[in-house]
Amino acid sequence: MKRGWVIWIVVGLVACSHTKPFGHKAPPQQQAATNVQLAIEYMKLNKMVESRKTIELALQEDPASADVQLTAGIIFERLQEPAIAEKAYAAAARIGKTDPNIQNAYAGFLCRTGKPAAGEKLFAEVATNPIYQTPEVALVNAGVCERSTGDMLDAQRYFNKALTLRPNMPEALLQLGNLAIDEGDGATALDYVQRYLAVNPATPEILWLGFRAQRKLGDTTAAATFARRVQTEFPDSAQAQFMRSGAER
């Protein structure tokens, strides 16, 4: 199954268009902000041709905007054009060097595109930035980045750091549970599942982990209970489809 990532990017680009007197054209920065908003909406609707055209207009109108460059990075990454995406993300990070949210987004891109050392370093910097309001998110992202390289000890260290800041953080608990089950430790994995479900709503990922942990422990009845929950509560999930395929892990 694919490993999950905490959401790298919160696109907080609230661009408002203000009515102008007839015959007066809005300034380029305002036009760019409006086009950023439109490009994001097109992307949400999976209208990527329109999204691309609109973000290209925004880039022409206000290339010095970190928000415009960041949105371009997101869209071109979605379009699987990594070279253009990297240029846009790098520009956003350079222009928005004091904005930890933009740095967090760029770190995620680096990790996803084969530069985990640079991504992990940037995540660690974001986590210690005093104006960043959710350092635990950057710590989990750094852990996921490290896990992708096979460095499980550093990954575990980051996940545990996140839990010291937010003891019931669902993604940190899930990631630690996945590390445990990958090491063959069903009991520890199940403990993380139980801690997760005690304070957080169920997800297909945590129920799938519970299923795997109980199977590892040899409790087929409890494993079947988790399996039923996946199928009934999240029938369209990748985990449910995986189970229906008859594949085992």
Q: Can you characterise this structure?
A:
The protein is an all-alpha fold and 249 residues long. The protein has three domains: 28-97, Tetratricopeptide repeat domain (Serine Threonine Protein Phosphatase 5, Tetratricopeptide repeat), CATH 1.25.40; 114-167; 173-249, Tetratricopeptide repeat domain (Serine Threonine Protein Phosphatase 5, Tetratricopeptide repeat). Helix content is 69%, strand content 0%. It has 13 helices and no strands. The protein has helices at residues 28-44, 48-61, 66-78, 82-95, 100-112, 116-127, 135-148, 152-165, 170-182, 186-199, 204-217, 220-233, 238-244. The protein is globular. Mean pLDDT is 90; it is low at 1-5 and 7-22.
Provide a quick synopsis of the model:
With 249 residues, the chain is mainly α. The chain has helices at 28-44, 48-61, 66-78, 82-95, 100-112, 116-127, 135-148, 152-165, 170-182, 186-199, 204-217, 220-233, 238-244. The chain has 13 helices and no strands.
